Amino acid sequence: MIRGNTYYNHGRQILLVDPDETSAYLIKEILSIHGIRVIHAKNGREAIKLFLENPFVECLITEIGVPYRNGFEILKALRRLNPSLPAIVQTAFAYGNIVNICLDAGFNDIVFKPINIRTFARLVQLYTMPSLVMN
């Protein structure tokens, strides 16, 4: 299967949308240990473009505050393309009823920064391994 100029037809992969290069690097390192490929977008426009180019993305992980489209808008756009796409929002903003706002918007889960590495890796594995979600 064609992925831009390369072939990629195995393994698990997620789309990470985060303008912070340091956070993205950390997440890539964490998930690569677990055999999960991370496709990184720095903004909402890039996220939608990369999703269209990578139809085997199994999970979306996005910040709320993302340039050119926020996390909620990204989720809405990608769910139009794939209604069953699991989506996790990550944020440092633990205010008010943000959990309810995110879940009501359609996110499957929310992760607060600073990220607990072990918990985060398990959560992503859960959403990229459908057999585990069913159990």
| Outline type | globular
Total count of helical runs of at least 4 residues: 6
Give the strand order of the largest sheet, numbering strands 1, 2, ... along the chain.
Answer: 4-3-5-6-7
Number of strands: 7
Helix content: 40-55%
Q: What does this entry look like structurally?
A:
- This protein has 135 residues and is α/β, with parallel strands linked by helices.
- The protein has one domain (2-128): Response regulator (Rossmann fold, 3-Layer(aba) Sandwich).
- 43% of the residues lie in helices and 22% in strands.
- The chain contains 6 helices and 7 strands.
- Helix 1 (21-32) links the parallel strand 3 and strand 4.
- Helix 2 (44-53) runs parallel beside helix 3 (71-81).
- The chain starts with a strand and ends with a helix.
Using brief descriptors, characterize the structure shown.
135 residues; alpha/beta; Rossmann fold; two-stranded antiparallel ribbon; 6 helices; 7 strands; globular; disordered C terminus
Nutshell version of this structure?
It contains six helices and seven strands. With 135 residues, the chain is α/β, with parallel strands linked by helices. It is globular, with a radius of gyration of 14 Å.
Strand and helix map with partners:
Elements: E1 2-3, E2 6-7, E3 12-17, H1 21-32, E4 36-41, H2 44-53, E5 59-63, H3 71-81, E6 87-91, H4 98-105, E7 109-112, H5 117-128, H6 130-134
Helix pairs in contact: 2-3
